[in-house]
Protein 1
Amino acid sequence: MLAYLIRRLFAAAVMLVVIVMVVFGIFFLVPKWAGVDIASSFVGKQADPAAVEAVRQKLGLSDPIYSQVWEFFKGIFAGRTYSGGGDVTHCAAPCFGYSFRSEQAVWPVLTDRFPVTLGLALGAAVLWLVFGVAAGVLSALKRGTIWDRGAMVVALSGVSLPIYFTGLISIAVFDIGLHWIDSQYVPFTDNPARWFESMILPWATLAFLYAAMYARITRATMLEILGEDYIRTARAKGLKEQVVIGKHAMRSTMTPLLTMLGMDLGALIGGAILTESTFNLPGLGRAVLDAIKNQDLPIILGVTLITSLAVLLANLVVDILYAVIDPRVRLS
């Protein structure tokens, strides 16, 4: 187990370096090759030439590429000092960039928005796992019955309907119409009870989409596993159906679900743009949307890095859970 963990941690460290280099290339090299003035993108198109030149000096855009990559990478772990145009700007570690348009470091913006997105992603993940997996298992065990067909119809609806549609419908029905839930967002630190109430509709809306996909995957995987020899052997030994399903079949079913969960949860931590926009949640998704409207490139760069690192971390956790669920993985 220890050797397996060391291999996975080493692979994650290598992937982290690759991610940083790829993100640097997307935001600094590709625009340069396309003939775009990178300094203008960071300071805004309406800035005067002196401000653009100052930003060019601060970012070191005239330095060799390897020097720019090193300063970019080092800033994440040790901070960075931007000097040029007669002034000096310090960005404390971890430095995910600096917005010269709003004159603030990107990291405080990310940490201010991150708890909202994290709460949305984790709450929705619990709902879609519970209801999605339960619906998928029930459909597999009741194959061909009205329960199976009804669950799959609901699942197909969840996949087909866009979040902004189901979100607005839920607000219109449960908030404006019935007054059962107040969907106006309240920070957790202000009022935990009101925060929980305001997150019910976003959680349910986001979970409806993902639960539908998890239900379909669970059903298909469970049907395949129930036909395996070891399941028939377990039943032939006289084991109770609950033991056969819960201990043997579900253990194999969890492997593809964990793979999906790692990707989905990691991506959502980077911001659920449609859900946050529909329910006016001040999370990372809204931060990206606002940054796109304001052409604030450093914010977009910072959220891109956070999203990539979240996916990397989520998949590292999934790899560890693989080894717990299936010991054969440790030897692979």
Protein 2
Amino acid sequence: MKEIPASNKKPVKDKSKVQKLKGIPKILDTSVIIDGRIREICQSSFLEGPLVVPVFVLEELQHIADSEDSLKRNRGRRGLDVIKEIQEDKNLEVIIFQGKYEEIPEVDSKLLQLTKDLKGKIVTNDYNLNKVATVQGLEVLNINQLANAVKPVYLPGEEMQILIVKLGKENGQGLGYLDDGTMIVVESGKDYVGETINVVVTSVLQTSAGKMIFARPKTN
């Protein structure tokens, strides 16, 4: 594990320090660390170059981990565990950036400035941070977009096996889910709640929130 030292006034303005980084730095934000999928993505070698974890992100995770709210506390602790695990992976270059950018109050703004200074890419699954970074001309690697891109493609007429877990909003519908969380709306599926059945895809709806698949029970 390496550390990039903080400058007293303007962190990472020394070009020689930036040049020591081989490849394009990938700056991790708090949300993508807590999410946890970054660990598996790194292990699969889809990301190249050093992974940069800013010290102010570590401080935010510590603050979350110390929360009185049990849900927040668990999320913060998971984030710290994720960092520890990627640090222990000898195939990954993980750098703790020590600059705090104390003149910038917001963590997201600090991340954007750090990404500019390191000429890197920000890794996130935060929708708003993604938008702001894009507007500022920064490159973003969005984990949610990656997940949507690798979801299996189902076409009308294809068959699948699905567990009907609950009733749908419309009369007679049953709902099931794929392993990646994609919702399957099964017409006339209400009588199969709690059962795993074969269904035939009738249509696929892609929205900004994700993909939804409509199907009907397969008739013998």
Protein 3
Amino acid sequence: MTDTVNDVRDAPASSAAVTSGAAPTTGTPELTHRPGRWIDGWDPENRDQWERVGRSIAKRNLGWSIFAEFLGFVVWQLWSIVAVMLPAAGFQLETSQIFWLISIPSLVGATLRIPYSFVVAKFGGRNWTIVSAALLLIPTIAMAVCVGNPDTPFGVLLLVAALAGFGGGNFASSMSNITFFYPQREKGWALGLNAAGGNIGASVAQFAVPIVVTVGAATTMNLPWAGWIWVPLILVAMFGAFRYMDNLSNAKADLAGSAAALKEPHLWIMSLLYIGTFGSFIGFASVFPKLIADQFPEFSTFAVGGASISLAFLGALVGSLSRPYGGRLSDRFGGARITMCAFAAMALITTGVILTLPMGNFWIFLVGFLLLFATAGIGNGSTYRMVPVVFSVRGGGEASRGGDVSTQRKAAAALGLISAIGAYGGFLIPQALSLSFQGTGAYTSAFLVFIGVYVALLLLTWAVYVRGAVARAGKI
């Protein structure tokens, strides 16, 4: 039996007449609630439905989506800080092995984003959030077990680190889900908040883990707590998704739409741009603790009371907090222009890092990287904001409107696929830095390559989306 009245729990006072059974305003789709928290008739582009009940429902789903995705990023980035602490805990590891432990979660997470981008349409956003949160229990518990024994073989450590990729996959399904809840005019801010709430998990992991494993530990570290502390929060996320989130029946990214998205040249162009922005953010976030430990070991951790704190968390924090503003600036000035400015800034700042590194000043190094994280975060938001607009224009709709359902489905599929391809930057950056260090004993060669890539992506953005035919078709 279905419930054809609007959601009373989320309706504002002004919708009392509707929720009590009065006929909705003419032309407004009627929301139908079915068992399993399925909603039929969802149309965020209809302003009347959106203002009466849609906005509050969307906000509730966004809140729990952010929390679940936050934990996904926490798990995804746990090894970025734990791997650096393993030698002090008695593990005998080479530098290249530590870089593999840091980068393998990004490789697996990026790959998982491809199937994860389709599962919302198959199982429902609420249902998959429950499942994807439950999967996070596997890498957290496995980590807690294996890091407690310094005799754990490297192969086992690498396998457990790979399992952390479950957390990276969550981003694709979460973003695909939220894009269906919000109208085109508000997608930039909503997707930016959802992404930032997830991204900040990397910062929280790097801040919390050193404290938890060292507080009250005297001369040793309680590394297993790096995994155990997240288990209760994961259980809360599962319950919250079960109790408060919804499934949208019209959230469908069918295989035909996905195949059509794969044939679009713009999917691959946008993927390259996303490697440059998000790939830089997640790649640098992963290796920042390692870079500090190698270049400025005396600043790797700071003793505060009986615990240790690493300032590496500031990088991911700044990048996460700046991401929503990339979406908001894009809503106002156009995503392509903001993305182009972000690449220009990233190239200049990376050049500054290279020039100042020989000074051996940690604080200049820290400020330089925080600026790099900030511009990468803004680029994350602006690049991701471009995707639904680009596909709307390509689909024949106006850039300022939502387009038809098939265009929305195609854009949702593209969002998931682009997030997957872009996340491979989280693997490429640590590996490039590792190769540079092994070959030259320094990271300068890798940074020079990054500068060249940023300049190339800047020119690509300008040619295609600022001055190209797509830009003339609508404001990108």
